[in-house]
């Protein structure tokens, strides 16, 4: 019993000292919790009950983690900084549920029906109305996309705030250690970011839903290209830090690597590029016989084969672009590495020559 209390006390102390580690821990717990909740979630599919029911899943867990964070950090320390830090897990929960989309779609649904999987677009669900209408199916899939855009925007805003805080203060020992490691080894930093981004994309692709609406497809897909790339660039830039002109320029170049890594990952996947290129309306579903590829199946059946061929060609185009960016990035990285080694050798030779000259003078 004493050992358990000591372990709990150590954990609470670590969370108090390091906001970053506590937010990461809460984020992981909340992500796992949402994956359990989504299995059991069932929208009532009642025009009156849907908004109220879905809002519980947005508000209740967010309030609970906010209160828990306040209690862990100490209720007596009611400064603005502590309250802001306590809000981070709550915002993380909102980001997670917006990324999933089903809660937002349920809240927006203003018709009655039966809650079931969207045929060909698993694992997305919707309220299938009693009087079946394609318009309702298109609306539901549009709301999935809308929810994920809100998620990306919230994620971007919170990361900008975090980056500003990291720049303004360096009290967090764990953060300082990570920053030092990243500053001294760009390869380690890029490798870590690459693994994280790859895992993140695998999670995002499960929830991604192209709105299949001409005019919106490009905008929605662009958010998935730009927002994560911008976030990792800012985080890397702040963590590596810059002192003056040359160091800042080098830092900028190294910070671009994770952003380009994200672009490579999404281009190799293909669904985001295909969504951006799609200029017709339809229903987002798996391509029969070519899973897990998805496309916007048009409502106009007469042009079905033509649009299908275009979509599959865009998947190929996206992957070609992904490999091209990967090749260019690898070549530039190799050139940078060689130049750095050459400069280091030259500096060493100059130092040795200076030492020899000092010996001759003596």
UniProtKB/TrEMBL annotation:
- Pfam families assigned: Ca_hom_mod
Bilayer disposition of the protein: Multi-pass membrane protein
Give GO terms: molecular function aspect only: monoatomic cation channel activity
User: What biological processes does GO assign it?
Assistant: ATP export
Protein's UniProt keywords contain Ion transport: yes
Q: Indicate the transmembrane segments per the record.
A: 49-72, 187-204, 216-239, 251-268, 320-339
Gene Ontology CC terms, in alphabetical order: plasma membrane
Location in the cell reads: Membrane
Q: Which branch of life, at top level?
A: Eukaryota
Q: Which InterPro entries match?
A: CALHM
Keywords associated with the record: Ion channel, Ion transport, Membrane, Transmembrane, Transmembrane helix, Transport
In its keyword annotation, does this UniProt entry include Lyase?
no
Q: Which family does it belong to?
A: Belongs to the CALHM family.
**Protein name per its UniProtKB record:** (Atlantic silverside) hypothetical protein
């Amino acid at each position: 019993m004493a050992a358990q209390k000591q372990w709990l006390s150590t954990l609470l102390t670590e969370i108090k000292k390091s906001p970053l580690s506590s937010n990461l821990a809460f984020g992981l717990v909340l992500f796992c919790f949402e994956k359990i909740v989504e299995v059991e979630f069932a929208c009532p599919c009642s025009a009156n009950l849907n908004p109220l029911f879905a809002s519980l899943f947005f508000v209740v867990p967010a309030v609970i983690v906010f209160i828990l964070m306040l209690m862990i950090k100490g209720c007596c320390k009611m400064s603005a900084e502590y309250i802001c830090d306590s809000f981070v897990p709550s915002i993380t929960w909102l980001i997670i549920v917006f990324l999933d989309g089903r809660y937002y779609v349920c809240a927006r649904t203003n018709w009655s029906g039966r809650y079931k999987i969207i045929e060909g677009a698993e694992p997305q669900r919707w309220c299938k109305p009693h009087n079946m209408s394609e318009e309702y199916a298109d609306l539901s899939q549009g709301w999935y996309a809308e929810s994920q855009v809100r998620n990306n925007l919230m994620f971007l805003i919170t990361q900008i705030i975090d980056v500003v805080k990291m720049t303004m203060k360096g009290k967090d020992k764990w953060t300082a250690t990570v920053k030092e490691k990243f500053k001294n080894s760009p390869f380690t930093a890029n490798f870590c970011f690459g693994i994280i981004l790859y895992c993140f994309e695998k999670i995002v692709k499960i929830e991604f839903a192209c709105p299949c609406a001409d005019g919106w497809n490009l905008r929605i897909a662009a958010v998935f290209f730009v927002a994560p790339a911008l976030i990792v660039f800012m985080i890397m830039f702040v963590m590596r830090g810059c002192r003056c002109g040359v160091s800042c320029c080098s830092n900028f170049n190294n910070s671009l690597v994770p952003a380009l890594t994200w672009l490579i990952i999404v281009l190799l996947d293909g669904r985001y590029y295909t969504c951006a290129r799609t200029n017709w309306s339809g229903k987002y579903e798996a391509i029969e016989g070519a899973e897990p590829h998805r496309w916007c199946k048009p409502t106009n059946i007469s042009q079905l084969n033509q649009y299908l061929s275009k979509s599959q060609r865009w998947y190929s185009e996206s992957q070609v672009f992904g490999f091209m960016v990967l090749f260019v990035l690898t070549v530039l990285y190799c050139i940078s590495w060689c130049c750095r080694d050459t400069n280091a050798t030259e500096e060493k030779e100059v130092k040795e020559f200076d030492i020899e000259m000092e010996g001759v003078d003596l």
